[in-house]
Amino acid sequence: MTRFWPFLAMIFLFSPTTTYAINVNDTLPLTQSGIGYIALIVFAIAYALVMLEEYLQLRKSKPVLLAAGIIWAMIGYVYSQHDQIEVAKAALEHNLLEYAELLLFLLVAMTYISAMEERRLFDALQTWMIGKGFNFKALFWLTGILSFFISPIADNLTTALLMCAVVMKVGGDNTRFINLACINIVVAANAGGAFSPFGDITTLMVWQAGHVTFSEFLPLFFPSVLNYVIPAAIMSIFIPRAKPNVVHQEVELKRGARRIVALFILTIATAVAFHAVLHFPPVIGMMMGLAYLQFFGFFLRKTLKRSLAKKAQIAIENGDDHALKRLGSVVPFDVFRRVSHAEWDTLLFFYGVVMCVGGLSLLGYLGMISDVMYNQWNPIWANIMVGILSAIVDNIPVMFAVLTMEPEMSMGNWLLVTLTAGVGGSLLSIGSAAGVALMGAAHGKYTFFGHLKWAPVIALGYIASIIAHLLLNGDLFT
Known about the structure:
This protein is about 75% helix and about 0% strand.
């Protein structure tokens, strides 16, 4: 390792294309330098490994964390050589602050979702759907519609995994149904997440950046509906009406399950109030909401013995031995255990993306791209292209790049890029966290090529949603 840095230094200092003049913002123009080219190569390799996660079985956070460290180490070396390390340090701290706000926000949301899962809310929903005796076509529509309306609250990844569990349970060996149902779930979850700040990380980023307020997302509702309904209507033609062979099971909600849902709604309201009324980052309200859950967990622990004694007495009176055994396995609710169950790979992946994109921004590449896309192109076409790129690269780095560029756009265009980045990922299975997760959950039955065959149908919904937004919300583009 000690021999590596002098070698890099020679490349940077003696590269004939390297220029180190300081611009008006005290940053070094490094887009045509050795360090710039190497940073691009490092990021490209890291993201190639992310896209191959399913095949390599390598968690997506690992390559981007390493890439972020390499990129910023190179930036730090060059800036220190030109006595501009404070400029690089300020940029680094700015990106860390951006990440910290999103990390804490997502951590609280994931903790609540984990708590609901532990209290068996999702198991109860799954059992209810299976026990109603729906046929395959009805289940196709039911899982899709529920995905569309749950994802604005529970986020598209969690929603997709929940509905996929239902599909896998009822689908059995019917690979065709499972593949189509999973595609439907991915499209529905991504479309539902596009009109809510809580539905996807990209919408959350736009909301926290202050470009769109909470209520201003609502004009995207009808375009999002079209984005889901059009491909779903076409795919449903190929779903049989036969009924699956499943065994109905009873699921009993754990104590406090419904109250945790109420606390989550209160937490969302608190976050919105902090942002809309006090003009503070919404993460402050979310952290306050975590306190709600902590106090409720304290209440559940303190009253556990009394609750168990009451239920045991009822079970004894009814002669229910099964209920007595179940009570013996009850453990106290632990908030910090729920925190540990958060999707840490996703959170660390997001750190790597933020820092990599931030480094490329300091090198000057995002400024170049912004100039081409938002000054030389029509912003509408630029934002449509953002959605297509989201399907290939993943919407998180694409949206963070747009926010880092900070192009001058109307409200209509900010809503357009929010829509396209959210639903564009549905075009390919690797374009969104929901799609990647379902390829793992339904391994061998929902695949990249199985999704790709239906990409033209999904594209119809993508085009229709854009046209609907341009027609219905045209006054927002002025």
